[in-house]
Amino acid sequence: MNDIWGMILAAGSGTRLAEATGGERKQYLEYKGAPLFWHCARTFARAAGMSGLVFVFPPEDAADQEKKLRQYFKTEDLGVRWAVAQGGARRQDSVRNGLAALPKECGRVLVHDSARPFVSARIIADLIEALDRGARGVIPAIPVTDTVKRVADGTVRETLNRAELAAVQTPQGFETALLREAHDRALAEGWEVTDDASMVERLAEVRVIPGEAGNVKITVPEDLERLRAARTTVPCIGWGYDVHRYGGLADRPMVLGGVPIPGGPAVVAHSDGDVLLHALADAMLGTFGGGDIGTHFPDTDPNFDNADSGMLVREVMAMAERAGTRVVHADLTVIAQIPRLAPHAAQIARNVARLLGLEPHQVNFKATTEEKLGFTGEKKGIKAVACVTGLREM
């Protein structure tokens, strides 16, 4: 029962920000090309021992956001299991629904507000370490620096000792069974709380670790300036390689860069066998750490049997755009003893430029042989390499 899961609460309405955001919920606001809840997920997934994540969305958004999450994980696999739950009327209702979505083996859970997108890996690691050492509940907090007074009816009733005060943050870590018990009690006895520690501390000791001033919550319009930090455009390079042997269906024409090559040998391939576009797609995936085309378009999937490789390239282009990467240049080389490709070079370059939405000078195509060496020299197959340059806002 030691599995640790994170719970990303993204079910709030964000009424205090509604006018400033044009009605968009704050958990969906973009920062550096991704919604706030996905930034939280990235940080959680990097924590050692994190087994999975539960995302809690408003009921009316849950199905749509689940579809988007599938694409996020396809584009940027965080390496953890995940699930979606529907939020409730109150924060504590959303947490209770999130608890119901956890697997039985989840022994500990970290509950986090997606409106805190700047949470650090250090805080998460310290929470897990405290739980490992026996804490049943643990929260991050920072000292209160202002003098705090208790006021009623416009009159100061008491000046509180700020040495004993702390501002509490999320994520908050708990034994899953203890947090469930606290929520059951809250439901049965009508507790109204603003965080999970307020429940758990009625049942067990809650320990405190140092929080961070940078772990701020996006709450009021002024906080939106934090999301408008200057972005840096970073060049990124991807490299792709693909190979196909000759043979296969005699009626399948050779295609390179989406251009039919009359008289070219047939190739053995699951899709249309366009070795150049396959190398190009892999190179594009490399610009944003998107894996390889075998992961996204497996040759075991009958949907891709004889598939148009231009379609695969367009799908990868869409993935790159979602990852915040803009392809700006491609340098391509085909290596084959046969057929002779010089007569088709200009058309191939133009067609690839069209597929990528680039100007002609942004795509370079070359063809060469290996002087009759190796399998290409022996006319047994064909291979291609691609180098793609992208620009990504960080």
Automatic annotation (TrEMBL):
Bifunctional enzyme that catalyzes the formation of 4-diphosphocytidyl-2-C-methyl-D-erythritol from CTP and 2-C-methyl-D-erythritol 4-phosphate (MEP) (IspD), and catalyzes the conversion of 4-diphosphocytidyl-2-C-methyl-D-erythritol 2-phosphate (CDP-ME2P) to 2-C-methyl-D-erythritol 2,4-cyclodiphosphate (ME-CPP) with a corresponding release of cytidine 5-monophosphate (CMP) (IspF). The record marks R162, K217 as: Positions MEP for the nucleophilic attack. This is Bifunctional enzyme IspD/IspF. 4-CDP-2-C-methyl-D-erythritol 2-phosphate binds at residues 242-244, 270-271, 292-294, 297-301, 368-371, 375. Its cofactor is a divalent metal cation. One of its GO terms (biological process) is isopentenyl diphosphate biosynthetic process, methylerythritol 4-phosphate pathway. Keywords: Isoprene biosynthesis, Lyase, Metal-binding, Multifunctional enzyme, Nucleotidyltransferase, Transferase. It catalyses: 4-CDP-2-C-methyl-D-erythritol 2-phosphate = 2-C-methyl-D-erythritol 2,4-cyclic diphosphate + CMP; 2-C-methyl-D-erythritol 4-phosphate + CTP + H(+) = 4-CDP-2-C-methyl-D-erythritol + diphosphate. A divalent metal cation binds at D242, H244, H278. Residues 1-235 are annotated as: 2-C-methyl-D-erythritol 4-phosphate cytidylyltransferase. Its EC number is 2.7.7.60, 4.6.1.12. It comes from Pseudodesulfovibrio mercurii. The keyword Transmembrane does not apply. Gene3D superfamilies: 2-C-methyl-D-erythritol 2,4-cyclodiphosphate synthase, Spore Coat Polysaccharide Biosynthesis Protein SpsA, Chain A. Residues 237-389 form the 2-C-methyl-D-erythritol 2,4-cyclodiphosphate synthase domain.
